[in-house]
Amino acid sequence: MDTKKLLIFASGKGTNFEAIVKYFKNSDIIIELLSDKKDAPVLQKAKKYNIKSYFVEFKNIEEFLKNKNYDLYILAGFMRILPEEVMNKGKFLNIHPSLLPEYKGKNAILNTYKNNDKAGISIHYVTRDVDSGGIIFQKEIENYKTLDELEEKIHKLEHKFYPEIIENELIKKNVLIIGSGAREHILAEKIKESKFLNKLYLANPNDGFKNLGEVIEYKNYEELSYKAKFFGIDYLVAGAENPMADGIVDLFLSKGIKSFGCDKEFSKLESKKSYAKKLMQKFDIKTAPYVVIQQIEEIDSALKNFQFPPVIKADGLCFGKGVYIPESFSDAKKIIIEFLKGKFKDASKKVILEQRLYGNEFSLFSLYDGKKLLNFPLAKDYKKENSGDLGKNTGGMGSIAHYKCNFNLDEYNNKLLKLLASIKGYYRGVIYSGMIETNDGVYVLEYNVRFGDPEIQSLLQLIETDFIEIIDKTINSKLDKLNLKTEDNFASTVVMAAKGYPDNPKKGGEIKNIENVIKKYKVKIYYSGVKIKDDKTFASGGRILSVTKKGKNAISDIYKAIGEIEFKDKKFRDDIGS
Ligand code: GAR
């Protein structure tokens, strides 16, 4: 385990403090003590064990902690309710001498004894309500006669179990994934496999993978963040772009929960294309010439500056569907007017007109820890709806990893690092550079602030490193210590969508024979738009599921599997990987 710092809050005798100190004696754990009582015996104990201690008046605790950070905050006989601002510093644990929710508050042991009731201890996460957070551990005391005996038994249990639970909380993580697509499905699968997982929670999963974790219901992000504190979430994994653009990471950070993702400011790299293009130019990153159009009157003169056909892009977020290549000058004008008039609501009130580039497109995903970038192998996705790269843009119809392209990655990383360093905010996650290899070198088409779906389905088949370790090192700015082990192999994914996708996917059709094809062809299935009712699976969205497999000949098994999945509204591309 890396070095970790604990702050123990205690204002009593400090027998729990002592037990914790002894337990971690020869470890890399650094312990400090805070007491709000000047004459508390626990302060003497700290001296005895050479533990750094602070006496801080209760009203000054928030100010005292302002520029300090600890990995975990431990309440051990600290008999006051801390203000929310203090608890928003990070994760807090408490120990209480009763079987919560019974006998909350003071004199728990005495009151249990008086009622001759069931006795025991509880260790729980701390929320702003009294003794109310999610329970991590409880142990009942079988029988007791006198009050002294009960007290002794309680303390014995506390001293045995509190340090062990603290150690587990330091090593193992509670992770919350938000998102409902196949990307979040594979993230859940990878996180579930991690040896560092304590418990996995899911916000808004689809029916196809909700059984991989405990589902948290919520009405808004504020409520979700409250529940995340309740359950002691260590890391939020923000799968998709929209929650980040709406500020979910900012909110969770303000509650002391770290995220694998970025804040609202950084999310503009994806949610405002004009912003990203400007920065690419500033940092000398090759990107296609472009203009921004905001008024209908600007269209004619803008179009004249581009070789036909240019690319028309909505400035904002459109689930990958806001890109259009016009067939004629009048078609271009018509589309731009539709965009400006709100085809994608506010997302298309600004339009980017860009010189079209020709070549092979590919995807570069990099981890970013605020200081360093670490690249995944290259991948490729297939954005057009039909085989042969024809038809409309979609969220993605298939992918392969890894993809080979020779270009100066170090030089690119240096430029991208400078670009990222110029933005003020929080970014500890994945950045996608959408690239194209042209006769004139490699250009960047766009940035995304997350993994791409369906690239991740293929890419993560090749990653051998524990996924929570990846998250942990990224979030804690330790990518220099991460060994990203990748298998030298190939993986492919074919997306099965519903007829009518991307404009009007047909919903409601039943999908059968999935379990069979999984067994027969050893493929993996990641769900997107499905509803499961009475063990039957129904289409409920545009992209229904992804079929993924690793190995050189995987693609033929994937197509056999897709062929045998029974779904009358099936739509897929038959040229993935070719
Ligand atoms: C412990 O029994 C702990 O459970 C209790 O205070 C005692 C502290 O003893 N905490 C609470 O009642 C919290 N509501 P210590 O100072 O000897 O560790």
Structure characteristics:
about 575 residues; alpha+beta; 9-stranded mixed beta sheet; binds glycinamide ribonucleotide
What helical percentage do the residues reach?
A: 25-40%
Oligomer: single chain
What compounds are bound to the protein? glycinamide ribonucleotide
Number of strands: 31
C-alpha geometry: elongated
Distance from first to last alpha carbon:
44 Å
**Chain-averaged pLDDT:** 96
Q: Mind summarizing the main beta sheet?
A: 9 strands, mixed
Which radius of gyration do the C-alpha atoms yield?
Answer: 27 Å
How many helices does DSSP assign?
A: 19
Strand content: 25-35%
Helix-strand category = alpha+beta
Low-pLDDT runs: none
Topology, element by element:
Elements: E1 4-9, H1 15-23, E2 29-35, H2 41-48, E3 52-55, H3 61-65, E4 72-75, H4 84-87, E5 92-96, H5 108-114, E6 119-125, E7 135-141, H6 147-171, E8 173-178, H7 182-192, E9 197-203, E10 214-216, H8 221-230, E11 235-238, H9 241-245, H10 248-254, E12 258-262, H11 264-271, H12 273-282, E13 290-293, H13 299-304, E14 311-314, E15 323-324, H14 329-340, E16 351-354, E17 360-368, E18 373-375, E19 379-381, E20 384-386, E21 390-393, E22 398-401, H15 409-421, E23 427-438, E24 441-448, H16 455-459, H17 467-475, E25 491-498, E26 510-511, H18 514-521, E27 524-527, E28 530-533, E29 536-539, E30 543-550, H19 554-564, E31 570-571
Parallel strand pairs: 1-2, 1-4, 2-3, 4-5, 8-9, 8-11, 9-10, 11-12
Antiparallel strand pairs: 5-6, 6-7, 12-23, 13-16, 14-15, 14-16, 17-18, 17-23, 19-22, 20-21, 22-25, 23-24, 25-30, 25-31, 26-29, 27-30, 28-29
Helix pairs in contact: 1-6, 18-19
Bound molecules: glycinamide ribonucleotide (GAR).
